[in-house]
Design a protein that fits this description.
Blueprint lengths: L2 H21 L7 H13 L14 H22 L16 H25 L4 H11 L22 H5 L6 H16 L1 H11 L4 H36 L7 H4 L4 H15 L4 H14 L6 H28 L9 H23 L14 H9 L5 H13 L5 H39 L4
Helix pairs in contact: 1-2, 1-13, 2-13, 3-7, 3-12, 3-13, 3-16, 4-5, 4-7, 4-14, 5-8, 5-16, 5-17, 7-12, 7-15, 8-9, 9-11, 9-12, 11-12, 14-15, 14-17, 16-17
Length: 439
């Protein structure tokens, strides 16, 4: 295949990804669906490399997906209007749905996949736990159809600026969950590595104190501090050259991604958590300023480009080696996760007590079911598998890659087809309730 043909296909794929969802916005078509399809067709063309399975290009896949995820995490953090002030616990109540999905649904989901793989299908414990950890986080990259659209800014007085908030609890919950659970899956990936190494009790004590608690706290602290410092400089620095908000220079967002991630990883915290915390801290500063829109737009374009590359390559791999090692166990795990484990874990989390923002109306059952169901799997799962298989031998790596590849593909198709009609129906119901006076 010539380079000219590659350029033509990639250009055509990007054009389709941008235009088709707009032209067919009332239909069940998403950009990831289009890109995966085009990539799969591209993979059928004659190629010099006999296989494009990501397992054979693990290091490249790890770094590509790593960068894609951190860019997406900055995007979702900047897109969220609802305040989260880490030093003011009272503001945490507005994120109650998020905490339930992270603290209840995510561990239940990991345990469910582990039990399905190990207890029912006979996989090795380390491999089953790795699959649970890799497939547990929802994706900030491929889930744009079910997430908030971007930051809202107001040009009025400061009181109104403080009132900026999402009124769609479903989209807010799915966006905020995706922003945090990518980083919070890391401790369980490390747990899988310990199982693979047959670690002793002392190692598990260190895992609990450092991997599960310490590195998360460190990620939040470094990320929030980085965001606060950059926000102070951009909006309130005494030096005009540092007040980037006045010039509208959006590259500060990319600098924030690299700084927060790089510094946190250097001190051995969780960089994914840090990037999201940094984005949230940036968003809290001058919340009504249009500079947030400029930063988010720049990150969104970069994320779209990275998504294009990842999905084209994944689609090519699907028809060029990745699914050769797909087994019935892979299919059971993928389908079981999407249709049983994730929905049930979400139901358990969201139907235990009150969720949503304090002072608002009830979070209706249909909305809770939507949050439970739309747990899109994607680029983060590919990253975690690439990272872990480079650290230890879990055995059957080809089957692990086939399982994750199949699950991500099934998620893109299933959630891409159902998201638009389901969320549109919820929006109509919400508008009707408002028209009736909130009853």
């Amino acid at each position: 295949m010539t380079a000219d043909l590659v350029y033509a296909f990639v250009g055509g794929a990007l054009l389709l990804a941008v235009t088709l969802p707009v032209l067919l916005h009332r239909q069940a078509v998403s950009a990831p669906m289009v890109l995966l399809t085009v990539g799969a067709l591209l993979g059928l063309l004659p190629m010099r490399d006999a296989s494009l399975s990501p397992g054979e290009h693990r290091v490249f896949v790890e770094h590509l997906t790593e960068f894609t995820v951190v860019v997406a995490l900055m995007g979702v953090g900047l897109a969220l209007d609802r305040p989260l002030r880490w030093l003011r616990p009272r503001s945490w109540g507005a994120w109650s749905t998020t905490w339930r999905m992270l603290g209840i649904a995510m561990p239940v989901c990991i345990a469910g996949v582990f039990l399905l793989g190990w207890g029912l299908l006979g996989m090795a414990p380390a491999a089953a736990l790795l699959l649970g950890a890799a497939l547990a986080p929802t994706d900030p990259v491929l889930a744009s159809d079910v997430q908030v659209g971007g930051p809202t800014v107001l040009e009025d007085d400061a009181q109104e600026h403080e009132g900026i908030d999402e009124d769609d609890e479903v989209r807010f919950a799915l966006t905020s969950e995706a922003g945090l659970n990518d980083g919070l899956a890391f401790p369980f990936v490390h747990a899988a590595l310990l199982v693979a190494a047959s670690a002793g009790a002392a190692s598990w004590t260190v895992w609990f104190a450092w991997d599960l608690v310490g590195r998360v706290v460190l990620g939040v602290l470094v990320g929030a501090a980085t965001g606060w410092v950059l926000a102070r400089a951009a909006f309130r620095s005494p030096a005009p050259s540092l007040r980037l908000a006045e010039s509208g220079e959006p590259l500060l967002a990319l600098a924030a991604v690299l700084l927060s991630y790089g510094v946190t990883e250097l001190v051995h915290g969780y960089g994914f958590v840090a990037v999201f915390a940094c984005a949230v801290a940036l968003r809290q500063a001058e919340r009504g300023h249009s500079y947030h829109e400029h930063m988010h737009a720049m990150i969104e374009r970069l994320e779209r480009l990275m998504t294009l590359v990842v999905l084209l390559l994944l689609g090519m791999a699907l028809t060029n080696g990745l699914l050769e090692h797909l087994t019935w166990r892979s299919v059971v795990i993928g389908v079981g996760l999407l249709l049983v484990v994730r929905p049930l874990s979400g139901v358990v989390a969201l139907f235990l007590g009150r969720t949503g923002r304090p002072g608002t109306g009830p979070f209706r059952p249909a909305e809770r079911f939507a949050v439970a169901f739309f747990g899109v799997r994607g680029v983060g799962s590919l990253y975690y598998l690439a990272y872990a298989t480079g650290q230890a031998d879990f055995g059957g790596h080809d089957e692990l890659w086939a399982t994750v590849g199949f699950t991500v593909t099934a998620s893109v198709l299933l959630h891409g087809i159902t998201a638009t009609p389901w969320l549109r129906r919820l929006e109509r119901t919400r508008e009707r309730v408002r028209a009736d006076g909130g009853s």
